[in-house]
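User: Okay, second chain of the day. Same drill as before: sequence in, C-alpha cells out.
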Amino acid sequence: MAAQYDPVATFPVECRDIEFRKAPARTLFARIYQPIGPGPFPPVLHLHGGAWNNKDRLHNPIMAHALAASGLLLVSIDLTRAPEAPYPANVQDAHLGVRWLKAHAREWNADPDLLGIVGSSSGGHIAQLIGMKPHDPQYAAIPLPEAPQLDATVAYVATRSPISNPVARRAQAEKMGNKEMMKKSDTFFSTPDSIHHGNPHEILERKEKVNLLPMLIMQGGLDDNVVPPIQEGFAAAYRAAGGECQLEVFEGCEHEWTAVPSPAADRSHDMVKAFIARQLRALQKAA
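Assistant: Same drill. C-alpha cells below.
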C-alpha cells in the first residue's frame, strides 16, 4: 500500500527514544514521533538547531509534534556538537541519519522512498548540505553496515532560518558584537577553509555539482542572527542554478518563532505541511 499524505489530517502521536549511534563523545539518540494509524506514512528526518554547539533531538517539539500529527513519521536525531568535534562531524551524523531512517522506515510504518528533511537554523544548514550533496564521500564517511547500498538522497528539504551562508552569518555576528555567536562559528569551522567548504551559498557560486531538490526557507523578518538578505542571496543563487526554492519571510518574527506557540508558528507549521504535500504529490505522480 502506497503512503498517502493529507496535510490537514489529524492523528494521535506516540513518542519514544531509541539509540541512534555511539559517537566518540557520547551516545546519540533519536526521538521518534509516531503517528498512530494504518499508514504507511511518509518519513521526515528532523535536524535540530543550536548554532552547531548545543541543543539536541528534543529541540522544537511543537513543530515536530504538529508535523507528526498530520501523518508524517518524524524522527529527530541528536547531532555531534562542535565542542565534541568540528565540521563536518554533524553533517556526517545527518548523512548517516538519512540512510539509517531509510533502512528502518518500514519497521516504523513508513515509506522510505518518500523521505525528506526538516531542519532549523544550524540544522537547516546541515539539511541544505545533505540535500545538495548526498553523495559527497566526506559526508558519507560513517558506514551503515546493515544497509551499505543506501544513499542519502531525499525528496525535499524544508528549513526555518537556515544558515545558508555561514560566512555572511559570521560577519553579521561580528557586526552585532555577538562574541558568543562568533565563538560558536569559529569552534565549528575550526580551520580557515572549512567555513567555505561547508557553505551552501558558496557551493552554488563555485558551480559544484549538486542535487537541486525542492527547498523551502522560512525566515523571520526581524531576525538579526540570520538576516533576511542572507536567505535572499541563497535563494537567488539556487534558482539561478535551476533549482526550486520557496522563500517565505515572516514579518514581525525573530529567529525561533516556530518554537513558541503563536499564530505565526501555526502558519509556519501549516506551510511546511503544504510544502511537503506538494512535493510528495509530484513525486508519486512521476513514479
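The first strand starts at residue 13 and ends at 22.

User: Thanks, on to the next one.
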